[in-house]
Design a protein that fits this description.
The structure is a single chain. By secondary structure, the protein is of the alpha/beta class. It is built from ten helices and 14 strands. Helix 3 runs parallel beside helix 5. The protein has three domains: about 170 residues, Rossmann fold; about 60 residues; about 70 residues, no CATH class. The chain is elongated, with a radius of gyration of 24 Å. A six-stranded mixed beta sheet has the order 6-7-8-3-9-10, sandwiched between helices. Strands 2-1-4-5 form a four-stranded antiparallel beta sheet, covered by helices on one side.
């Protein structure tokens, strides 16, 4: 069995009026992984998901799912894809269990009340099975959407902003549930605005902007390649200029010369070493600093930097 569950090559989507939502997207998803797709509003995340799930017709490129050409084997492939969209979509007056059963039947699956119970229990919805959906909280409604997507046991599950609008505690609870799905063998692709969500859950991260994939890699590899160290040295009296002995380091003065700022490194520890060297040089030369603060860049920092550096490519 191949390790690739989804293979996208040269995917294009241009809407009427000339708006290009996807611009030559290449993306490969491995079986059993959690992949987080990050990008601002309008970046093309939902269009990409819609193309794989059959809600958007691409204008170019190829999509293979489970080793089959999506254009040629749509009905067979769609049976094993689940989708939790951003927008809540169900009959608000219907009962939870009826909606989940209906979703299973929509994919041609035989009735299986034991499986429906298992899904509802896994999402803490069993006690709410006979409740009307309109009576549920926003977080519980989002769980119903996930239950509907899981009812037909998909191999590939798309989560489009799965925790949007839910509180932090419920968000973390849902992270645990999503991780449990992966442990059972489900491959998960999620879009999110929460960088911490990608840091917490994803094996790999992709960044999309203006319909183009800027970067795809494992989290640790991204941090190693693009991570940076930032250090602030503060002084009671302003420095008139950066000492010549520190000229080789990426330094600049701020706050009228009372703060010496270092931004550098490469995610491999180089930044920390250089900060230590800078401190040692100043100590040798009798330059007294009254404070020092250091921080390592986060995935959010890297994400923001990428969006301002469009020349970076995957």
């Amino acid at each position: 069995m191949t390790d690739t569950i989804l293979d996208i090559r040269g995917l294009e989507k241009t809407y009427k009026g000339g708006v290009k939502a996807l611009d030559g997207v290449d993306l490969t998803i491995k079986r059993g992984e959690i992949f987080a797709l990050l990008g601002p509003n309008g970046a093309g995340k939902t269009t990409l998901i819609g193309s794989v799930c059959g809600m958007v017709r691409p204008t170019g490129g190829r999509i293979e799912v489970f080793g089959k050409d999506l254009a040629k084997h749509w009905k067979q492939v769609r049976r094993d894809i689940g989708l939790v969209p951003q927008e809540l979509s169900f009959d608000m007056f219907d009962k939870v269990i009826r909606q989940v059963r209906f979703s299973r039947g929509m994919f041609g699956c035989e009735p299986d009340d034991a499986r429906i119970e298992e899904v509802l229990r896994s999402l803490s919805l069993w006690d709410k099975r006979d409740a009307q959906i309109r009576a549920l909280s926003g977080g519980m409604k989002r769980r119903v959407m996930i239950a509907k997507a899981l009812a037909h046991d998909p191999q590939l599950l798309f989560l489009d902003e799965p925790t949007a609008g839910v509180d932090v505690e419920l968000r973390r609870d849902m992270w645990r549930q999503i991780d449990a799905l992966r442990e059972k063998g489900t491959t998960i692709i999620l879009t999110t605005h929460y960088i911490e969500e990608a840091e917490e859950m994803a094996d790999r991260v992709g960044v999309i902007s203006k319909g183009r994939i800027l970067l795809v890699d494992e989290k640790d590899a991204i941090m190693a390649k693009l991570g940076r160290t930032e250090a602030h040295f503060t002084f009671d009296a302003p420095l008139p200029a950066i000492p010549a002995s520190l000229g080789e380091y990426p330094l600049h003065l701020e706050q009228g010369g009372t703060c010496l700022v270092y931004r550098g490194g490469d995610g491999t520890g180089k930044g920390k070493r250089e900060v230590a060297e800078i401190a040692q040089v100043m100590a040798r030369e009798g330059i007294v600093f009254t404070g020092m603060e250091t921080r390592e860049s986060t995935l959010e920092d890297i994400f923001v930097d990428l969006l301002h550096e469009p020349e970076v490519t995957a």
